[in-house]
Design brief:
mainly beta, five-stranded mixed β-sheet, globular, single chain, 701 residues, 3% helix, 35 strands, Maltoporin, Chain A, 64% strand
Length: 701
């Protein structure tokens, strides 16, 4: 299943027995994106949560919350890692796997995104990229350097990036409450304004040594971030609580993160021709945050001082191996067997001090909460090119996970295991045909995160702890009894590979999910407050189904019978359906899943001058999702227009101009709660978005 960096992506996609879409440096560099999320949002079937330009978790098939498996160099990263911590200049290629394979793991109900860091080994390679951008009058910039060399059997690549970004956010919230008879009971309007300064440094590298049959490799990875934030909030209340929670709130915060990882591997060819790979790694993630918020009454008197300090230390050790044996070879018809194992140990220490007017609200839980996770996996995979027409990939993977945590009030010991059979088939219509069908029959799963299992509460920041909060702003707590979600799935695809590197494809999929995890909200007595509080915690509630169709077309217009223009078209569209059995309809969809998403992109290479320009239109419609216990989530329409122009100064130099979110539109979200007594509360948030204009100089020497 490994794909070499110098292969043509379409050729590798075509030859793979399991469905794999590969996007290389051209796709990554094209738009001059500042974050990985901006790149991923244009890939088939991928959406990104959050507002345009503010990042968010990537979601395949619209499914968030851990349904999409995110890998870096084929390895799962520690909890809390964000793909936006990786600078796009550090990435060699992005691989999309719509169905799980035994080698990469089956914690991928929606699919897998594998981010491969720079690995192109060229003699005396040097590349320098410097970029500057503006979000209104707020500057952003980064500089990246890549160096590689090869000396005999040894080669290496080293990439470093430093970046800085100044951002501002502005939003207006409206909170409305109604009694069971429809009479208004609460009316609040909150205006929020915040600003942040962010700085980051990123270093990654690869070193390889070849000694006879043995190849050694070391992969270091280091990421450092610093952030300072400040904000102000004004609350205007015309109906409801007397007195209101506050009239004016001011806050400031600082945070820093250090993420480091060192991985290594040894590969050798045995006397019988089999290949053995042993690999291991260690990572350490440190993060800390301090914040202080002051809430004041209309006369300026201090009502509440909240001081929050947190520190997280995450340590991880991994070890694994893979044995692959070529069973038979007949021309281009290969039959190979792969078996392997994975071990991972993760230890997390979460220390937090929360003071409300000088009083600790989490003292009963202890200052530190420790959690340890042990994961053991074993797999076997049979990959067989039966002839020039048929290919199959059969796999079986077993994985067991144990999570333990300890706090002053509660000990957690959760163990789960899942066996996942996997089958992939490819059928080419004829030897050498450019048309082929794919079929995947899989079982996949999603394990609860450590945060979902640990019962330590996260308190709502809007309302004082001494009083009741509102159902639209509940406290949050974990559930140590959660079981993993499991899914049975089928994928069927048709692919046509065009002359000139184009492709047209259609993929349909379906998943049946058992033990679905949903956050359930309840008003209940709690140890951290003298009055009952609204608390949201995860539970297994039953079953759900999702299905969809994904279309993709990438081509030069001249290759499909259109005029001989220097125009390339990149497009994809996806339609999704889902249903949660335990939630009444309509709109009883999986959490935050849109009904469809689409991209239309184009590139025009001018013939008279060395300039290429293009753009992309990304669309996601407004979405309403009915959640459990009378909760509704609404997301407004997203329409993001990006553009770029590349002036090729020489074969080794270029100047790229870009714009992200060229037509900024307000972002709208809403949460509605229908309570058991018939009353209703609704919160609407309208947040401003911004266009970012940038220029980037690219040099190779």
């Amino acid at each position: 299943m490994n794909v070499e960096g110098n292969q043509d992506p379409n050729d590798a996609r075509r030859r793979s027995t399991a469905s794999r879409i590969i996007y290389g440096r051209d796709e990554i560099e094209r738009m001059g994106d500042a974050t990985v999320g901006e790149i991923l949002k244009r890939l088939p079937g991928v959406t990104v949560g959050g507002r345009p330009g503010r990042g968010g978790d990537p979601r395949m098939r619209g499914l968030g919350g851990g349904y999409t498996q995110i890998l870096v160099d084929g390895e799962r990263m520690p909890p809390g890692f964000s793909v936006d911590a990786i600078e796009p200049d550090q990435i060699e290629r992005i691989e999309i796997l719509r169905a799980p394979v035994a080698e990469f793991g089956a914690r991928a109900i929606a699919g897998t995104i594998n981010i491969v860091l720079r690995e192109e080994f060229k003699p005396r390679q040097n590349a320098l990229r410097a970029a500057i951008a503006l979000e209104e009058d707020r500057p952003q910039g980064n500089i990246s350097w890549t160096h590689g060399d090869r000396q005999g059997a040894n080669d290496y690549t080293l990439t470093g990036t430093v970046s800085g970004r100044r951002q501002q956010d502005q939003s207006d919230s409206t909170i409305s409450g109604f009694r069971p008879d429809g009479v208004p009971a609460l009316a609040q309007r909150i205006h929020n304004l915040s600003a942040s300064d962010n700085a980051a440094g990123f270093i990654s590298g690869r070193w390889r040594w070849q000694v006879g049959r043995d190849r050694w490799e070391i992969q270091p990875f280091l990421n450092l971030t610093r952030a300072q934030g400040r904000g102000a909030s004004d609350l205007e209340q015309t109906l409801g609580l007397v007195p209101p929670p506050y009239a004016r709130a001011d806050s400031h915060s600082s945070s820093h993160t250090e993420q480091g990882r060192l991985g290594g591997s040894w590969a050798t060819v045995l006397d019988n021709g089999a290949r053995l790979l042993l690999r291991g790694g260690a990572s350490l993630n440190l993060s800390s945050r301090e914040s202080e918020a002051m809430q004041r009454a209309a006369d300026g008197s201090l009502l509440r001082l909240r001081q929050d300090r947190s520190r997280i230390e995450d340590q991880s050790l991994t070890q694994g191996g893979r044995y692959s044996q070529l069973i038979a070879r007949n021309g281009n018809q290969d039959h190979s067997l792969v078996a392997g194992w994975e071990l991972q140990f993760n230890r997390r220490v979460d220390a937090r001090t929360l003071l409300d007017n000088g009083v600790s609200r989490l003292a009963d839980f202890g200052d530190d909460v420790q959690a340890a996770t042990r994961r053991v996996a074993a797999y076997v995979q049979d990959e067989w090119e039966i002839d020039k027409v048929w290919g199959i990939n059969l796999g079986l993977r077993w994985e067991g996970i144990n999570t333990q945590s300890d706090s002053a009030l509660l000990k957690v010991d959760n163990t789960s295991s899942v066996a996942t059979p996997l089958a992939h088939f490819v059928w080419r219509l004829a030897p050498g045909s450019r048309d082929q069908f794919r079929l995947s029959l899989t079982r996949s799963y999603r394990t609860p995160s450590t945060a979902q299992l640990i019962a330590r509460p996260v308190l709502s920041g809007l309302y004082p702890v001494d009083g009741p909060n509102q159902p639209t702003s509940p406290d949050r707590a974990g559930n140590p009894l959660l079981k993993p979600e499991t899914a049975r799935g089928v994928d069927l695809a048709f692919e046509r590979y065009l002359q000139g590197g184009g492709i047209v494809s259609a993929n349909v999929f379906a998943r049946h999910i058992d033990n679905l995890i949903r956050n359930v909200r309840a008003l209940q007595p709690v140890v951290w407050s003298p009055v009952p509080r609204w608390v949201s915690s995860p539970r297994n509630i039953g079953a759900a189904q999702t299905a969809g169709i994904e279309l993709e077309a990438r081509f030069r217009v001249a290759d499909v019978g259109l005029p001989n223009w220097p125009l390339n078209v990149r497009s994809n569209a996806s339609r999704f359906w889902s249903r949660v059995d335990q939630v009444p309809g309509p709109n009883n969809r999986l959490d935050q899943q849109p009904t469809w998403t689409a991209n239309l992109g184009w590139d025009w290479a001018a013939r008279a001058v060395p300039i290429t320009w293009g753009g992309n239109l990304n669309l996601t419609p407004a979405t309403t999702v009915r959640q459990i216990d009378g909760q509704f989530y609404e997301q407004g329409r997203k329409r993001v227009v990006d553009g770029y122009a590349l002036w090729r100064l020489s074969p080794l130099a270029g100047l790229r101009f870009s714009v992200s979110n060229a037509q900024p539109a307000p972002s709208f979200t809403a949460n509605t709660s229908e309570l058991e007594d018939g009353s209703t509360q609704r919160q609407e948030v309208v947040a401003r978005t911004y266009a970012v204009w940038g220029a980037r100089l690219e040099l190779r020497f």
